[in-house]
Amino acid sequence: MHLSMIVVTDIFGGFSTKDYDPINWGSKEDKKHFRKITTEIGTVIMGRKTFESIGHPLKDRLNIILTTQKKENKENIIFTKGSPEKIIKFLENQKIHSAAIIGGKKVFEDFFPFVDKLYITIEPIVLENAQKLNFPKTSFKLVATNVLNSKGTIVLEYKKLSQKDFL
Ligand SMILES: NC(=O)c1ccc[n+]([C@@H]2O[C@H](COP(=O)([O-])OP(=O)(O)OC[C@H]3O[C@@H](n4cnc5c(N)ncnc54)[C@H](OP(=O)(O)O)[C@@H]3O)[C@@H](O)[C@H]2O)c1
Questions:
Q1: What top-level class of enzyme does the UniProt entry assign (predicted)?
Q2: Residue among 67, 108, 128 to mutate when testing ligand 1 (max atoms within 8 A of CB)
Q3: Atom 21, ligand 1: which residue's CA is nearest?
Q4: Per the confidence metrics, is the pTM higher than 0.85?
Q5: Which atom of ligand 1 is nearest to the CA of 50?
Q6: Residue ranges of the domains in the chain?
Q7: CB 130 within 8 A of CB 162
Q8: Does the C-beta of 45 come closer than 6 Å to ligand 1?
Q9: What are the pLDDT digits (tens) for 12-33?
């Protein structure tokens, strides 16, 4: 299973703030990038609050929504719960071999040990009272950079280093 994490932050690493509309501080170019990458990957995994803040399932992608609540699955929405290991096993049983982790905080942090690729968009803004993500120390290699617009929104693409990269 290949898991990618896709996150947009401000220049100081803040990824969320109650002072802003949850999804509208990112640039339209990043939204386009997000749509392209997640559609290529095919499956997105998100927490129930992120799903509600988006307001609808992402089209042309299988939407895996984590929640402890009982909800009815729809054509491209599966509600489920459990550990990352359980979710990964479930997807592998469905012959799904790649997925994108798209938030929020707990979902990013819980799935981080299983992620092998990061797509970090940095928007050239500062969010007030921004919340940050907490991860254990991990090494990555930068594999691509992409400037999305004239104001300088950038996407950094990282691959997680494995044991054999250190040999
Ligand atoms: N900058 C970014 O890239 C980015 C991306 C996504 C979201 N965000 C921000 O993140 C915020 C929302 O994130 P959040 O951290 O508050 O919430 P969230 O992670 O989207 O959702 C949390 C909820 O997900 C469910 N959940 C999570 N893990 C679960 C598991 N293993 N099994 C079962 N249920 C599980 C629970 O739902 P129930 O309560 O229903 O059980 C939990 O209350 C928004 O402000 C949004 O703007 C930012």
A1: oxidoreductase
A2: 67
A3: 47
A4: yes
A5: 20
A6: 2-154
A7: no
A8: no
A9: 999 998 766 666 789 999 999 9
Distance CA 8, CA 107 (A): 15
Q: What is the CATH number of domain 2-154?
A: 3.40.430.10
Q: What is the pLDDT of residues 65-96, one digit of tens each?
A: 999 999 999 999 999 999 999 999 999 999 99
- In this structure, what token pair is assigned to residue 164? 């054999």
